[in-house]
Amino acid sequence: MKIETGPDALSLADVYINIHCHQTGANQTIEMISIGTQDFDTAATPDGFYSLGLHPWHLDQEDTQTALGKISAAGMDPNLLAVGECGLDNAIAVPLPLQTAAFTSQIELAEQLRKPLIIHCVRAFNELIRIKKSTPNVETPWIIHGFNGNPTLAEQLIRHGFYLSFGAALLNPRSHAGEALSRTPFDRLFLETDAANVSIDAIYAAAAKMLGLDNVSLRQHIMSNFKRVFLND
């Protein structure tokens, strides 16, 4: 779904924003499909919004220069809203220096394209923050997708300028995600389904309850963030 204006447009009360998913979901949802560069076919670009990046899991499937070329070629497509997901993962066998090189190359390209970064980060937040601090002139927003860390980590990331996107972990009572959500300012917040078999409206309902908001107010906050961060509005 695209954002429409005029008398026939859906009201904010009717619309969910899902900034990171791997398949299309329900009606009345503005969603951004995450596509890996290894699967991207420029002859069949998506009809709706999408992000495009070289995931650290796929560094053995495609070299960085090939991936950067695909992202750059897609950069003029108005439906390409972000670079990623990309990032760092200390739970896989790929050496972290190799991951870091691919990630920093995508940071540079995101700056050139003026697109936000959708970041995958697992057990590498210290390194991620170090990279952020070493690139102080970066202007594009950095968004941690699928955040399920503790409140202290959330506050640390927010202090360093990150946005946080929460997903299915909000439905898990054993996760720290709910506590972290409560420490996240409304203007740094996004919600997503990722690859989970859960509806975006269930995630919004859980988040609204945790934040003490009604659903309409939460959707308004996230719509405002989406327009500012992804549409430069």
Automatic annotation (TrEMBL):
The keyword Metal-binding is annotated on this UniProt entry: yes
Q: Which Gene3D superfamilies match?
A: Metal-dependent hydrolases
Which top-level group of life is the source organism from? Bacteria
Q: Tell me, what's a Pfam family for it?
A: TatD_DNase
Q: Keyword Disulfide bond, does the record have it?
A: no
The cross-references to InterPro entries, in alphabetical order and at most eight, read: Metal_Hydrolase (IPR032466), TatD-like (IPR001130)
Name the SUPFAM superfamilies for this protein.
Metallo-dependent hydrolases (SSF51556)
Q: Which residues bind a divalent metal cation 1?
A: E85, D194
Quote one Gene Ontology molecular function term.
metal ion binding
List, alphabetically, the GO terms of the cellular component aspect.
cytosol
Listed A to Z, the keywords are: Metal-binding
* Residues binding a divalent metal cation 2: H120, H145
UniProt-recorded name of the protein: Deoxyribonuclease
Origin organism is Methylomonas methanica
